[in-house]
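Please, structure for the following, as tokens.
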Amino acid sequence: MVPINVIRHLNEQYVAAALAGNVEWYRRTLADDFVCIDSDGSVLDKAAFLKQTAEPPELASYDLAEVDIRFFGEVALVRCTGHWMSKTGTPGISKYTDVYARQHGSWRVVSAQITRPATSHKP
């Protein structure tokens, strides 16, 4: 599979795993030294991210609106804008950046940062 298609597919799986609370997908796909800067500014390592993922998700849906994937050697930068709906019916948007690195023949997420604009409220 062409690398851009691999990363596009992983990005779609990342979103699906978040909506499903699929901790195992993240356990397999996140690098051991993964770090996430969440929309509230908190910094989560892999263990904290997995613990958060195990909690029931607040979002009912997340639709990707814009996806930009760039490669820098064995690193892929994914920048996205998405529209979400909370389980209570509150809509919002978010932008995120994920960084993938090719490690031992597989692509792993090494970093994520999520931003919700001031006009978009956390569910």
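The first strand starts at residue 30 and ends at 37. The chain has a mean pLDDT of 94.
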